[in-house]
Request: fold
Amino acid sequence: MIFQRLIWAALATAVVVGSVQTGVQRWQAAPLILAAEVYEEQKAEAPAPAAPVAAPAAHAHAEGTAPHEHGTAKEWEPANGAERTGWTWVANMLHAFSMALLLFAVMGVWLYRRGSAVASLRLAGLVAAAGWLSFHFWPSLGLHAEVPGMEAAPLQARQLWWVLAVASAAGACAVAGFARASWRWLVVAALLALPFVVGAPKLQGDALAGFGPEAHAALEQLGTQFIWATTWVSLSFWVSLGLVGGLAFQRWVRPALLAVLQRGAAPAVGAVQAPQ
Reply:
């Protein structure tokens, strides 16, 4: 029973949040990506130099995912317009569904460990804020979003550092939220500092090498705008996830979960008549 409620609540949340994210992406990020891809195609069509050069490194499109790179062979990609928007919407819904399940899982652990005194919307907002910090803000301090055409440090190094940054920030949030000892803040500070002590991988040289002066200046400007655009996309995603997910959890998941915890005589359930 509770599993069905969990899945349906996550699906309902995913439809709303995925639609919101798609709309914000179309407004904020998509025009910048399309503009940068024009310059990327121009660079790809340019004659190859005599000396071998490294393949262009990846550019990041999706919030909350590790860096990736495209193969040299021509791969299928959706056509610009309705097809591309449709597949983006599907991907955003799948992303939102997975994050909604994570949101509900953390909220469920909180109810089990700390009781039901915190209202669902407030708890969802706190968990969503921790998600934004862990999946976007903290990794972006070392690896900012990149527009198509920009080169970057080796992919594997960036992926490993991204995972480290996310794990460190998520661990810091978990310690801050669930630990009660006074030393927890020292652990939080150490975890947050860890990825920057290790150091994010950096490209040695110009990320826009190979472009002419005009294209170089245009891509540099697009890159700055893209960093802000991805920040707004990420904020809209986590704010809407916290709001819609909190309402869905309150309506469908929380009553069933508290009933299960009561039947199991869980000591941390608290009063079931607490604010919802």
Q: What stands out?
A: The chain has seven helices and no strands. The chain has a mean pLDDT of 87. The longest helix spans residues 213-263.
